[in-house]
TrEMBL record:
<dbReference type="InterPro" id="IPR050153">
    <property type="entry name" value="Metal_Ion_Import_ABC"/>
</dbReference>
<keyword id="KW-0067">ATP-binding</keyword>
<dbReference type="InterPro" id="IPR003593">
    <property type="entry name" value="AAA+_ATPase"/>
</dbReference>
<dbReference type="InterPro" id="IPR003439">
    <property type="entry name" value="ABC_transporter-like_ATP-bd"/>
</dbReference>
<dbReference type="InterPro" id="IPR027417">
    <property type="entry name" value="P-loop_NTPase"/>
</dbReference>
<keyword id="KW-0813">Transport</keyword>
<feature type="domain" description="ABC transporter">
    <location>
        <begin position="5"/>
        <end position="228"/>
    </location>
</feature>
<dbReference type="GO" id="GO:0005524">
    <property type="term" value="F:ATP binding"/>
</dbReference>
<comment type="similarity">
    <text>Belongs to the ABC transporter superfamily.</text>
</comment>
<dbReference type="Pfam" id="PF00005">
    <property type="entry name" value="ABC_tran"/>
</dbReference>
<keyword id="KW-0547">Nucleotide-binding</keyword>
<dbReference type="GO" id="GO:0016887">
    <property type="term" value="F:ATP hydrolysis activity"/>
</dbReference>
<protein>
    <recommendedName>
        <fullName>ABC transporter domain-containing protein</fullName>
    </recommendedName>
</protein>
Length: 238
């Protein structure tokens, strides 16, 4: 395995509350790791630790030179917000050494990858749908051709059509660019379809491995608790 991430005994405590305790796992290049667990289990905190946004103990070791992209769970934009989609992307153009014309060609390619036409560029960010805005965020994260993409529930609150498009983009990135995906999701069908490995977290490690090996009814009951377990059973593939 071409290992790009190694986490050992990762713990996070904020304001005296232990949010994560002694997580250890590895991720190889081109893998799709799904992170699952109940609300408040520390999944987003894990992402924030991986991005260096919160203090932690233990070890997080990214392979040297790895470029990381991040797509947040939600980013609210007021309907009256005056920034256009084009202006939003041009904010990032200063991070590239090539001229604006070349950047626009590069942007057009990334937009097409997520199924968006160039006509969207003139629209205001606040005018486009939630699903379309989520794809804009993915295109934004792809501009630097990251080796790793972190998706924090990228389809939360969007329609099924947009949801399918976003997951197909993930699959395409793995196939064409061998992009490594770290994905937080509550949808077990998605995990079975797209994830090569799963990490089950409820503040500490509950299970990890290939989805069909570790997502047994017993492990899901342990992860979510007996009372909430049946809410997730209908998502298991037949």
């Amino acid at each position: 395995m071409d290992k790009i991430l190694e986490v050992k005994n990762l713990s996070v405590t904020l304001d005296g509350e232990e949010l994560l305790k002694e997580l250890s796992f590895e991720v190889g290049r081109g893998e799709a790791l799904a992170i699952i667990g109940p609300n408040g289990a520390g999944k987003t905190v894990l992402f924030r630790a991986l991005l260096g946004l919160v203090p932690f103990s233990g070890s997080i070791q990214w392979k040297e030179g790895i470029k990381i992209g991040y797509v947040p769970q939600k980013l609210y934009v007021e309907r009256s917000f005056p920034l256009s989609v084009e202006e939003f992307f041009l904010l990032k153009s200063k991070n590239f050494w090539f001229p604006e014309k070349k950047f626009r060609e590069h942007l057009s390619h990334e937009l097409s990858l997520v199924g968006i036409g160039a006509d969207i560029l003139k629209k205001r960010l606040g005018e486009i749908s939630v699903g379309l805005f989520q794809r804009v965020l993915i295109a934004w994260s792809l501009l630097a051709h990251p080796d790793v993409l972190l998706f924090d529930e990228p389809t939360a609150g969007i329609d099924i059509g947009s949801e399918e498009t976003i997951y197909s983009v993930m699959h395409k990135l793995q196939d064409e660019r061998r992009t490594t995906i770290l994905l937080i999701s509550h949808d077990l069908n998605v995990i079975y379809r797209y994830a090569t490995k799963v990490l089950c977290v409820n503040k500490s490690m509950v299970c990890q491995g290939e989805p069909r090996e570790v997502l047994s009814p017993e492990q899901l009951a342990k992860l979510y608790g007996e009372g909430k377990f049946y809410l997730h059973m209908h998502q298991l593939p037949k």
